[in-house]
Amino acid sequence: MACTNMPPPPAGCEEFVSCLENLFSLSLNDSRGMIKDFHEEMRKGLSGQASSLKMLPSFVDRPTGKERGNFLALDLGGTNFRVLAVQLDGKGCAAVQAVRKFAVSGEAMQGTGEQLFDFIADGIDAFLTENRMKRSSSFPLAFTFSFPVAQTGIASGRLLEWTKGFTATGVKGRDVVGLLNDALKRKGISCIAVSALVNDTIGTMVARSYGDPTCDMGVILGTGTNACYREKRLKIEKLKDRRFRKYIMINMEWGNFHKVRLTGYDEQVDGASVNPGAMHFEKLVSGMYLGELTRLVLMDAIERRLLFLHEPKAAGAFGQKGLFRTEDMSLIAEDETTDLLRVEGFLQHRGITVATPHDKTFLKHLCEITAGRSARLGATAISSVISWMDPELKDRHTVAVDGTLFEKYPHFKTGIIAVLQELHGAKAEKILLVHSKDGSGLGAAIVAAVAAAESGLNG
Ligand code: ADP
Ligand code: MG
Q1: Is 301:307 a contact under the CB 8 Å cutoff?
Q2: What would the pLDDT profile of 108-150 be if each residue is shown by its tens digit?
Q3: Which of 100, 122, 124, 303 gives a 20 to 30 Å CA spacing to 336?
Q4: What is the pTM of this model?
């Protein structure tokens, strides 16, 4: 019902919104410029020159779909780690038989490396017990480790850099499989043999391509963001080893792409992070930062007396780092009721009892602006990679996407598709985005199967 005596929005709102829309805009031209920059950074990264894209070769190509057996997979993301038991039928079907999710504690993330790997070993121990797995047998385990790693073999690699708020000491520069094995030994777990180390992007792509040969790209939009794709070996100039196959999957580490325009809010997010100056693209796009970035915009609006004018508690409710999260934005974006009742409920829960209709719609609109940029940037990055592989867009490309931001943020996927259509017109139909749930863990198990087949281990 229209309310005739509704207070008008505070003066200055329109200017503020139009200024923000400008700041956070990514026009079609901007996207085209970004694609050029992306290609340049990709080229440098592949040839071994300094680049914001590390372009890390994995040791594997796509699976054939014939891999089979039972495998354990361990998926260390950023917020959670999951243990999975996976069965591969050899006919392109991979099934998760059991899964358990653990939240990674702050202590584990930011304490010592030993604490982190002990925490993981405890999770594995609990999973073995819960699923009554015989400790006298031997289980091949694939380790999905979602951080930049210089892979030295199919089951070994050194951590190059922590990202996503992790700072655990004594891990950078070390082989993470060795550290996991040490922790398993400390716990007395001898039934596990780590047979593959896989990045989550690779896992996500492999999980889909096991049954779908058109899948040639994997993307993560969760705590962090990253992607991998299938590259011709001859295009990877820095790879001198001729033993490799014709194609190899490349973990791009695109979260570090740095040719992006930062707003003052982005600079604040960066300055308050544990890795200032690094991972710019990730800080503009991913779930770990999007809520915080939006919180800074909200605080700015509150301080300018454009939002929650009649609610003195608002500044306190949003006044500290971490008080507004990406999941809160999702909840707000989901509210399609005329009176924004769910937004109201959310605010009440935060102690904000006096919210005008303007406050609610304004809050929702501000979230749309920051989340909209995230989706546009994600889409532009996807387009960069597809157009690198196939400049004329002649073939079909299935892009496997994993991560809670993509899965749960309302309209995120449609936002990405809209930008792909702007960039590629009708040919955008050839790019198919599919959600590959738990793909990062499932795919790792498939890589473990490839490794097991090669080394004669039985899964
Ligand atoms: P990981 O990246 O650790 O593997 P996920 O892919 O599950 O884990 O992503 C978790 C991240 O997703 C959280 O850090 C949070 O930023 C974001 N997130 C969680 N819930 C939601 C939601 N409902 N909507 C959008 N983003 C969410
Ligand atoms: Mg993940």
Answers
A1: yes
A2: 999 999 999 999 999 999 999 999 999 998 999 999 999 999 9
A3: 303
A4: 0.94
